[in-house]
Predict the 3D structure of the following.
Amino acid sequence: MVKLIAIDDGHGLETPGKRTPSLPDGTVMRENEFNRAVAAQLDVHLKRCGFQTLLVAPGDTDIPLGNRTNTANKAKADFYISIHANAYGDGWNNVRGIETYHYPGKISGQQAAKIIHNQLIQGTGLPNRGVKEANFHVLRETTMPAVLVEHGFMTNMEDALLLLLSEAYRAECAVELAKGICQLFGVAYIPLVVAEPKPEPEPPVTEPNEPEEGIASLSVEDANKIIAFLSASYMATTNKEARKEFNRLANELRKASGQKPK
């Protein structure tokens, strides 16, 4: 019999407080950016492996927790997975790693949490903060086994760069969640097969042209990724001249990508 998996992508895009501390350039990255990306990829992986899926909080708005669990309960889902990124305190600190929660006394939830947690730790290599109990609404009010995973800390610079800037880390988390759910239900995980692209003919050799003035020579996405890494260096030093240079480089990247300097 086909199993139905309820997927919960944590908080909405504008949920207060669910974001990183401000980077030196003023950038703030939201938890939902990570949650929804992993949920979308997990949805694809589970369907490929023969599961049915139910997204209990589609879109970017913050769906009330009661609505989420009611939707899963009404659909008689077989399992509930809630995807999150963690936080500790109000600013940057050294607390990092993955932890997985189940409701106290629910043996089926505890077993599921252990399986999924072990899969994530093996696959991602992040610090292991263990399997824990919690009285969270989505764990307490669901009639099926339920697990909530915190995939790293938004308040730790190393974790934040993975959670919110690394597509590879998001993809890894989605795969490991899918593998854990497959193991839980005794279903073979079917890897994603990516066809190798056909080689394109080499273009004729031409003299490189200088980019026209005012036209971006760097994508906004790439520029912001580099700026985030510069921000990590900014945070690691108190030298005023070094910080001034980091800000100058960040603004040069913004110019190159067509953004306004700050």
